[in-house]
Amino acid sequence: MKIAEVKQELSSDEKMLESAFKLETFYKKYRIVIWSAVALLVLFFIGRSILSGIEEGRLSEANSAFLALQENPEDSAALNRLKENNPALFELYSYAQAAKKEDKAVLDTLSQSSNAVVSDASRYTLAVMENKTTDSVLYKEMVLLEEAYLAIENNEMAKAQEKLSMIDPRSPVAALAQLLKHSTIKAKQ
């Protein structure tokens, strides 16, 4: 029995040695590819963390500029920092200031923005200032309410009721729509 066990043990050792030689041959053959892949992975994660740090710094700078503008809206250095570090926030801030100051020129410029929210809000605010109507995704029901109001002013009660009926009863402006509907009914009588 001892000879059979020794043979089996030698056979296992041979297989292990054979596997080690195959692994060594594989490593020698693909050593450059393996180390290149490891180096690329390390460089990828280092680059990613560097870019993440840069982005975080940029956003932090934009936030501090925005906070400075909250305290002093006339701070041109903070306005420039905000514009450089976060153009979307700069446009939103510009919209808020233009709406507050009723600056039609700035609102007209912002209505051409690539930022859909700023563009839509600017177009709507500009239209309200000029007593006009406009298509708005954000203020759809407000636009309908204003169109109805302008129709009532022009004594077009049917058109006003049509616009008011388009407002969803669950909308925050539904109560105003109901009041205007009642005024159109009384105006007809």
Task: Lay out the secondary structure.
Elements: H1 2-71, H2 76-85, H3 87-101, H4 104-110, H5 116-129, H6 140-153, H7 157-165, H8 174-188
Helix pairs in contact: 1-2, 2-3, 3-4, 3-5, 4-5, 6-7, 6-8, 7-8
What does the model show?
The chain contains 8 helices and no strands. Among the domains are: 87-132, no CATH class; 139-189. It is mainly α. Helix 3 runs parallel beside helix 5, helix 6 (140-153) runs parallel beside helix 8 (174-188) and helix 7 (157-165) packs antiparallel against helix 8 (174-188). The longest helix is centred in the first third of the chain and has 70 residues, at 2-71. The model has no long low-confidence stretch (mean pLDDT 85).
Short key terms for the protein model shown above:
mainly alpha; 8 helices; elongated
Provide a brief overview of the structure.
Helices cover 81% and strands 0% of the residues. With 189 residues, the protein is mainly alpha-helical. Among the domains are: 87-132, no CATH class; 139-189.
Mean pLDDT: 85
Q: What is the strand tally? A: 0
Strand content: under 5%
- Poorly predicted spans: none
End-to-end distance, in Å?
117 Å
What fraction, in percent, of the residue positions are helical? over 70%
What class do helices, strands and sheet pairing give?
mainly alpha
For the report, how would you describe the main beta sheet?
A: none
Shape: elongated
The Cα radius of gyration reads 35 Å
Helix count, DSSP H or I runs of 4 or more residues: 8
Order of helices and strands: HHHHHHHH
